[in-house]
Design goal:
By secondary structure, this protein is an alpha/beta fold. The chain folds into two domains: about 5-190, Flavin prenyltransferase-like (Rossmann fold, 3-Layer(aba) Sandwich); about 200-295 and about 310-410, 3-Layer(aba) Sandwich (Rossmann fold), CATH 3.40.50.10300. It contains 16 helices and 19 strands. A hairpin with a 2-residue loop joins strand 18 and strand 19 (about 385-390). The protein is elongated, with a radius of gyration of 26 Å. The structure holds cytidine-5'-triphosphate. Cytidine-5'-triphosphate binds near residues 263, 288, 337, 338 and 339. The site of cytidine-5'-triphosphate (CTP) has 16 residues, from helix 12 and strand 16.
Length: about 425
C-alpha cells in the first residue's frame, strides 16, 4: 500500500508532530507532508536538539503552520502553549523520538515544550505515539530498553524500529520507520478494533499450474483485493495470515504471508491454517484445472506441426472443502467466498453461496475488476443482497471487514 491509498484517511484529525534530535529527522519532513495529504491538520513542535537537524522553516512550509519550539512562545495568549497544544490534539506522535527524549518521558521531566506537553496531555483522550530513532547500541542499551518499557507502562504507544544501515555507518536495530510506515501505523492506530482477537486467514492472487518447467496456466488476478482485505483486517486488530499466489505486491504491514504457486500448494497450506482460524476469506482466483501431469523437462516441438495434447484434472475447491469442515459447520470458523462472474452476478453468487456452503458470498464482475484499483461488490447472505457501490479496493476492503465483523460478533453474541 502506498501513501496515496491513504489519501483523506486522517481528515478531520488534529495531529501534533514532535521532532527531537536525530538524523532521522529528515524522514519527519516527508511524514509531515504525508500527514497533510492524508487530510490531517498538523502542528509541529520541535525540541532544541530537533532544530539542529531540521529547520522550523522547512516544517512550517510543509505543515502550513508556524512551528512551536519554546514554552515561552509569545503567541499563546495565556502563555500556556503546553496546555493549548495538547488539548486540541487527537494524537501526539514524536518522530524521531531520541533516546534522551524517551528517558525524559520515563522520568516525567519537562525541560522544554515538547516533553512538557506530553506530560500535560490528558492521557485518556490524547494518545502519545513514539517512533524511536537512534544508534543500535543506544537502542540495545538496558537503560533505553528500561525507559521504553516504562513509557509503555505509562500509556505511550512505542512503534517498532527498523533494522538496517544507520546514519553513523553501523548497521543494526534502531532506524526509524519510513514515512509511509509511520502513516500506516497512525491510520491503523485510529481504526476501531472490530476484529480484535480474531485470527483471519485469506487466500489471494492467482495460482500457477505448471505444464513444464517454463510454461504454465494462470489468470489475470492481481491479488489487490485480497491484499487490501488483509491490510484492513490487520488494522481492525485481527491476526492475519495471507496465503498468496504469484503476485507482485508488497506484504501489508503486520500481516503474516505464505507464498504458494499452485492450487495444490494453496489448498494444503490453507487447509492447515484454517484449523486455527476464526475467519476464512477466499479471494484467490484458483485455477479450476491443472495439467494431469507436468512434464519434468521443456516440451519441444517435434517438427511434425502437431501440438502436444494436454490432459487436465480438476483442482480441489479450497473454499468448499474448508467451508464443509467440522469447524466451519459448527460456527467456529466463519467462511467468506468471492465469486468472479462475467454475467448474472447475483444469481450466480447466490447459487455459488449455496453450493460452497458459505454464510457470506461476495460477488464481483471478474473482467471488470482484474488489475484495477477500484471495484463494485455485491454481498449475498441469508439477510439478502447488499451492494457496495464503486470505490477503491482499499475502501471496499474496509467496508467488507466492517460487514464481516458485524456478522461474526452477531453470531457469537
Ligand atoms: N475457490 C477456491 N478453490 C477453487 C476454486 C474457487 O477456493 N479451486 C474459491 C475462490 O477463492 C472464491 C470462490 O471459490 O472465493 C469462487 O471462485 P470462482 O472462481 O468464482 O468460482 P468457481 O468455484 O471456480 O466456479 P465457476 O468456475 O463455476 O464460476
Amino acid at each position: 500500500m502506498t501513501a496515496n491509498d491513504l489519501a483523506g484517511e486522517l481528515s478531520g484529525r488534529h495531529i501534533v508532530l514532535g521532532l527531537t534530535g536525530g538524523a532521522a529527522a529528515f524522514k519527519a519532513a516527508e511524514f509531515c507532508r504525508l500527514l497533510t495529504r492524508a487530510g490531517a491538520a498538523v502542528q509541529v513542535v520541535m525540541t532544541e536538539a530537533g532544530c539542529q537537524f531540521m529547520t522550523p522553516v522547512t516544517m512550517q512550509a510543509l505543515s502550513g503552520r508556524p512551528v512551536y519550539t519554546s514554552q515561552w512562545d509569545a503567541r499563546a495568549d495565556n502563555s500556556m502553549a503546553h496546555i493549548n497544544l495538547s488539548r486540541e490534539a487527537d494524537a501526539i506522535i514524536v518522530a524521531p523520538a531520541s533516546a534522551d527524549f524517551i528517558a525524559q518521558l520515563a522520568q516525567g521531566r519537562a525541560s522544554e515544550l515538547l516533553p512538557l506537553l506530553c506530560l500535560a496531555r490528558p492521557a485518556e483522550r490524547v494518545p502519545l505515539l513514539l517512533a524511536p530513532a537512534m544508534n543500535r547500541e543506544m537502542w540495545a542499551h538496558p537503560a533505553t530498553q528500561r525507559n521504553v518499557e516504562q513509557v509503555r507502562e505509562d500509556g505511550a504507544t512505542v512503534l517498532g524500529v527498523a533494522h538496517g544501515e544507520q546514519a553513523c555507518g553501523e548497521s543494526g536495530e534502531g532506524r526509524m520507520l519510513e514515512a509511509t510506515e509511520l502513516l500506516q501505523e497512525l491510520v491503523a492506530f485510529f481504526t476501531p478494533k472490530a476484529l480484535l482477537g480474531q485470527r483471519v486467514l485469506i487466500t489471494a492472487g492467482p495460482t500457477f499450474e505448471a505444464i513444464d518447467p517454463v510454461r504454465g496456466i494462470t489468470n489475470h488476478s492481481s491479488g489487490k483485493m485480497g491484499f487490501a482485505i488483509a491490510q484492513a483486517a490487520q488494522e481492525a486488530g485481527a491476526d492475519v495470515t495471507l496465503v498468496a499466489g504469484p503476485v507482485h505486491l508488497p506484504t501489508p504491514r503486520g500481516v503474516n504471508r505464505v507464498d504458494v504457486v499452485s492450487a495444490l500448494d494453496m489448498h494444503e497450506v490453507a487447509a492447515q491454517l484454517a484449523q486455527n482460524a476464526h475467519i476464512f476469506i477466499a479471494t484467490a482466483a484458483v485455477a479450476d484445472w491443472r495439467p494431469a501431469s507436468a512434464s519434468g523437462h521443456k516440451i519441444k516441438k517435434d517438427g511434425s506441426g502437431t501440438a502436444p495434447q494436454l490432459a487436465f484434472v480438476e483442482n480441489p475447491d479450497i473454499l468448499s472443502d474448508i467451508a464443509h469442515s467440522a469447524r466451519a459447520q459448527s460456527g467456529e470458523l466463519y467462511c467468506v467466498g468471492f465469486a468472479a462472474e462475467s454475467e448474472d452476478l447475483i444469481a450466480n453468487a447466490q447459487a455459488k453461496r449455496a453450493r460452497k456452503n458459505v454464510p457470506l458470498l461476495v460477488g464481483n464482475l471478474g473482467p471488470a475488476t482484474f488489475g484495477r484499483d477500484d471495484n463494485t461488490l455485491v454481498l449475498v447472505d441469508d439477510e439478502g443482497v447488499v451492494e457496495l457501490p464503486r470505490a477503491s479496493k482499499r475502501r471496499l476492503a474496509q467496508q467488507l471487514v466492517g460487514e464481516i465483523a458485524r456478522r461474526v460478533s452477531g453470531s457469537t453474541a
